[in-house]
Amino acid sequence: MLLCAALLRQRYLAARRDWAGRLVYVVAAAAGAVLFACIALMSYAGAAYLRHAHAQALLVSIPAWAFLVYLFTDVFIAFGQALGDLYLAADVPVLLVMPLRTASIVVAKFVAGVVTNEVYVSAFLVPFVLGYLTGAAAAWWSYPLALLGVVVFPALLYAALASVTIVVLRYVRADKAKEVLWLCGAVVPTIFWVVSFWGVARANGDITTLQLPAAPSWLPSTWVGDLVAAGATHDVWPAVGWFAFLLATTVVACPVALAFIARGFLRGYSEAATNPPAVRRRAGHFGRSSALRALVRKDVRTFLRTPQLWFGHITALGFIAYLLVGHRAQTPILPLTVQLAMVQLGFVAMLAGLNPGMTALSLEHAAIWLLRSLPLSAADIVGDKLAVAWGQTAILVCAGGLALCYGYHFDAPHTLAVVVFGLLMAAVSVGCGLAFDATYPSFQWDNPNAINRGIRMVMPFLSSIAVLLACALVLGLARVALHGAAGVLVGLAASALLAAAVVRANVRRALQRVACLEP
Amino acid sequence: MPQVLIEVDRLTKSFGATKAVDGISFEVYAGEIFGFLGPNGAGKTTTIKILTGLLTPTSGRARLGGFDVVRQPLAAKRILGYVPDEPNVYQKLTAVEFLDFVGDAYGMSARQKALRIGELLALFGLDGAAGDLLGSYSHGMKQKVLLCAAFLHDPKIYILDEPTVGLDPRSARLLKTLLREVTARGGAVFMSTHIMEIAQSLCDRVAIINRGRIAAAGSVLELQRLSGERTLEDVFLGLTDGVTGTGMAAAARGPLPETP
Questions:
Q1: Chain B contacts of A294, Cβ < 8 Å?
Q2: What is the pLDDT of residues B173-215, one digit of tens each?
Q3: What does the buried/exposed string (b/e) look like for A480-516 if buried means 16 or more CB atoms within 10 Å of the residue's CB?
Q4: Could you give the residue ranges of the DSSP H alpha helices within B52-134?
Q5: Domain definitions of chain B by residue range
Q6: I want to staple B76 with a disulfide (CB 3.0 to 4.6 A). Which of A162, A343, B67, B252 is the partner?
Q7: How many CB atoms lie within 10 A of CB A181?
Q8: What whole-number distance in Å separates Cα of residue B9 and Cα of residue B7?
Q9: CA-to-CA distance for A427 and A450, rounded, in angstroms?
Q10: pLDDT in tens, A310-367
Q11: What's the half-sphere exposure (Cβ side, CA atoms, 13 Å) at B226?
Q12: What is the DSSP letter of B16?
């Protein structure tokens, strides 16, 4: 217990020390509150609309899928997190040489990992549940029951993921295990999602008969989803039953998983901490390069040799598949237009560009001293970071944009407009991310996927979303005022101007911050 | 009068209310190895970080080869070779790629780079591992790569923060020889170390910093003469509130706790 408390306190202090000023706390708290309110309001509006439209089947099938989306996101994050918390964390060697039982270390680390996931749950699932239950006019008892279920959910999930991690470490070499886990975390949910959602296309589009396909009943996300849905339909005993089942499974599964993890912990740690055998590479030839080219070459090599950095892109590309599948189930509420496709690709580009932008400088890790002590200007450093982050996102946007437009049967000019808009939004999100990263860099991390944990992601995400919404508004207004190609062109030009202004402001901020960076 | 290559004038660096470096001044001349000694937290690394452009001073001035490190940072960095106290490198680059990158940052030609990288890797015994990722290197090997990077563009000024930590005896000897060669060619070396034997045998002059201020500066002989101590270690302990050799022995004589 003492170790648990000490680790949690240390994590809390580390999170606090990441933020230098009181103003940042205020802005971050306000941004978090806005996000919470937005999710709650949208959930409320959606549930209320479906309730008034008597779309009961669709209404009760939503929670299981909402929790499934969260589960997949968490699978993606927590695979890396379990590996990082249990084996790659900087404090594990220190704890292992202390006179502590391995089981105590495992339990403390497990609790700390679950608490981290509870933060995500509070930010995303709690507002959804509150909004959904209110919109569905659920009974009063469903609120505490559903919230308790939501709180229990991450423990079960983390136990399963940590167990899988230790099994993988037993059979797959440590350096490969990291990549295998992250790859599974990204690819398996994407395939599952696309295959499952294909069923929606078979619905006839009548909202009163439409319902999402049944989510897999063996997944804990479905149990929590059914608990929330039972609350919405005032079915008290099914709700109590699902909660009891969830709680009982957690009470049984967590100790079993912890015992299993504790048993294999030392071996797993030894595997994970062992340096991979040296990979010899050809020396190549020496050519003279400018400082900027040398920086770009260095960052591209780092990107290509760090698979964890690709997975954000895999997830973003997964969205293209979701959009194409979703397109088959389009309803007249939101007809497909070039402008809609532009905003869709813009959203994908924004998601894809955020992480590369927000980690561009932090990826220098402990070697940041080198950039500051070499004769490199701030313009070289910022230019390199922009080029590499935007370049990788641009490749994804072009590939995704072409696939999307092919699926939508767009002609070449429309495809070009969609891709150009995607590239603009990629530049916006990379710019927002880079300016934020230059202001609040994080050079102490265990793995690159951990850089953007927590509230760090919220502010650049909201800034980029705001720009995307402004551009969507501009595109919509241009479409209403000027039909056809002229509407697309004017909307695109206005969006380009807006994006250029945002990128310029962010680059200037990044330049100022990099020039006075004190690692 | 030899040329002044490193000039520090009333340099101060504050972190909030704490003054890590408090108005220190010194000069390092061409052809000189200057030792910078001090207990942990005395301000050595902060001073070095200001000289190398990693930190901005709160007040005062520092010049490398006549270039102000704040106003002309790029010019100052071009004539500098730096080895930090921790060998943090890019884990996903090979030694050759890392040195190639550093060479490009200093504007070296392809021919110069090929020649110097091969030469230095062989000298430090890294040619067999030149194609391995730096992430697979040991602490000492990374330290050697950083020494190669510092020597790569043949700078006039070397700033080394604990350069011998992690080095095997052969490499430590090699480093001393290389530093002597640098000073023989008119360069200057500014190094911090905790190893008094190295400071005593290698440095022409030393400065002892304590609580952000220079407690004493001069040649080892001068310091010994002025303080009346026999060794540099005793001078150091006397000036930095340290316990003398006799005091430490007395403190260490207490009984060990019994094992349960």
A1: 100-101, 104-105
A2: 999 999 999 999 999 999 999 888 889 889 999 999 999 999 9
A3: eeeeeeebbebbbebbbebbeebbeebbebbbebbee
A4: 73-78, 95-105, 110-123
A5: 4-79+156-252, 88-154
A6: B67
A7: 23
A8: 6
A9: 23
A10: 766 776 777 776 677 666 555 555 677 899 999 999 999 998 898 899 999 999 988 8
A11: 14
A12: T
Cα A423 from chain centroid (whole Å): 20
Closest residue on chain B to A274 (Cα): B136
Q: What's the pLDDT at A496?
A: 96
Residues contacting residue A122 through CB under 8 Å, at least 6 positions apart: none
Per-residue CA distances from A246 to A144, A257, A410 (Å) = 15, 16, 47
Q: Is B136 in Cβ contact with A276 (below 8 Å)?
A: yes
- How many Å from the N-terminal Cα to the C-terminal Cα in chain A? 36
Task: Determine the Cα–Cα distance for residues A447 and A460; give it in Å rounded to an integer.
Answer: 21
Select from A178, A166, A157 the least CA-distant residue to A261: A166
Angle of helix B139-152 versus helix B95-105 axis, rounded to 10: 30
Q: How many A-B residue pairs are in contact by the CB < 8 A criterion? A: 110
Pair of tokens at residue A215? 């989510």
Q: Which of B90, B153, B160 to mutate to test binding with chain A, by most A CBs within 10 Å of its CB?
A: B90
Q: Does A291 sit within 8 Å of B107, measured CB to CB?
A: yes
Could you give the CA distance from residue A408 to residue A328 in angstroms, rounded to a whole number? 10
Domain chopping of chain A, boundaries: 21-275, 291-519
* Residue A363 identity (one-letter amino acid): L
DSSP B125: T
Top residue of B100, B126, B141, B157 to mutate, by most chain A CBs within 10 Å, is B100
Q: Which two tokens stand for residue A380?
A: 């070289």
Task: Collapse the DSSP code of B69 into the 3-class scheme (helix H, G, I; strand E, B; otherwise coil) and give the result.
Answer: coil
Task: Please check whether the domain covering B4-79+156-252 is classified as CATH 3.30.565.10.
Answer: no
Round the CA-based radius of gyration of chain B to a whole number and report it.
20
Does any CB of chain A come closer than 8 Å to the CB of residue B158?
no
How close is the nearest chain A Cα to the Cα of B173, in Å?
A: 26
d(CA A65, CA A145): 19
